[in-house]
Structure formats: C-alpha cells, structure tokens
C-alpha cells in the first residue's frame, strides 16, 4: 500500500496535523528544525508521494505480478537502494490496482498460483533468467542489463555520473583520486558481477592520464566492506593516501568514514569523499556525504509501466537508462 500521512506521523513520532503542515511548508507552525528534518527524512525513506493516475491507460490483462528481489529481506534493510526501488514498484502497482507478491533472495519456489508478470530487481544469472521465464514471458529487469537477452531493462547511467564526480574533483585540484568499489555474485554463484562504476572510473581517470590501479580497493557493498577497504588503503598507502575517494555506495562510504576517523584523518580537509546512490543514510553520518542521487523510485515506476505495455501488446524490448544528480554535502570541500 502507498505511504500515508498517518504512516509518516507514526514513524516520526509526531501528530498527523504536524506532518501535514510540515510537508505543506507551513512556516507559521512552531516546530523545531530537527523535527522538520526528521519528518522530511521519514517521508523520503517511505517514498511518500502523490502519483496521479494517467488519464488514458493501455488495455491489459495484467492483474497479478511478482517482485523478485535478489537480496534477502535482511540485506535489503541494510541497503536502502533496493528497498527504494521496490517501494517505487509497489506504489505504482497500487495505482494500477495490481496484486503484488514479494519474493526475496530469488526464491521463486515461494510463488503459488498464476502470475501475469515479473519485475526482477538485482542481478541474475542466465539460469535464473531462464527459470523466471518459465513463470511468464512478461519480464522486466531493474538494475540488470538483460536487454541483449531480449528483456526490458531499467538501468542507471553510471558513465556520465562517475565522469561528473571525477570532473568535480578535478576542478577542486584533486588529481590523486582513489576508488572503493564492490564485487558480488548472483545468488546461485554462477555469475560474477562487475561493478560498472569501477569501469567508468578507470575510463574517466585514464582520460586524464592519472589512473593508478594501486589506488583502487575492492570489497563487498556493505558498511564493513567499506571500512575494511579504507583500512587497507590507509595501511598500504600511508602518506600517499589519495586526497579524494569515489566510493560505490553509501553503506561502503559510511564504513570508510569510520576507518578515516579512527586513523584521525580529517574529512574533507585531508580526504574528500563522494558516494553513490544518495539514500537516507548519506544525510545521517558525520560529515554528511556528498553522493550521486539515483532515481530509485522512478526506476520502480518505469518498470511497472514497461510491464503493463509489454502485457498489453507484443513489442520489441526496451532499454531505459535514467540520469542522476550530484548532491553536494560536507564530505567534499
């Protein structure tokens, strides 16, 4: 179900009236800045939005869909990126009055009864794609490029966003730039996932003729992974530690911040950090993280719209790539 003002009020610990007046920017309301900030943060985390139903809709028999998430439910709680995508799917589905079933960790054996379409969120091996195809031909992938395999895919423009981060550091006269990126495999272990941010970073730095592989550190996409990677960078590089780091997601960036703070390395005075995804987490660490904002909610909305189009009539596959925005905060100068 879509998020309501009552949901936000309960999560923020304030009255329904207070939530309504804050979200409508009622400046006459006597409420502290911290409370206003908490209400907006909760609203953003719960993806509160008023989405208008289109005036005209394609004719479709789409009624029951499944969201197949490659993360476990517990892991999704730690990485708000995929949660935000899922909530976008669920909100859009409600406006189309679609019945939605949630499946975590690609466990499609949990599906009972017929479904009319699947939105697969995350990364999937060839075998897993084939297994999903046995359920329905109406398949849309989010955050996994399955376009060449003949499926609609909703993706983020990594190349331009990473280039923009490198250009920003360059304008700040920061030319020694490090990278902390992620590695992972599909849940069946049959496909190793290359981080597209790492590939874009290498290309951008090579264009400046300043790429140094010893400044790149791989780990998993978790807080602990980012912590361990930055600890390794500090221990191995010493005084040659780069003056800027691009880090592949917010949980990793928060872990890297912890490692720098333990080593008494000031951010951003000695090391500037730019993260990726701009989840709510980016604003609740110190210093707050500059981060690439990804249109996670729009990714979910787009996936539902593509699924409805595909179910209404046969057509060629579509590959939709959404843009990003740089959000500047205190972790950069």
From TrEMBL:
Q: Which Pfam families match?
A: LacI, Peripla_BP_3
Q: Where are the transmembrane segments?
A: none
The record's keywords, sorted A to Z, are:
DNA-binding, Transcription, Transcription regulation
Listed SMART domains = HTH_LACI
Molecular function terms, GO-annotated: DNA binding
Whether Iron-sulfur counts among this entry's keywords is no
Q: Which SUPFAM superfamilies match?
A: lambda repressor-like DNA-binding domains, Periplasmic binding protein-like I
- This protein's record includes keyword RNA-binding: no
Q: Where is the HTH lacI-type domain?
A: 3-48
Q: Which domain of life is it from?
A: Bacteria
Name the record gives this protein: LacI family DNA-binding transcriptional regulator
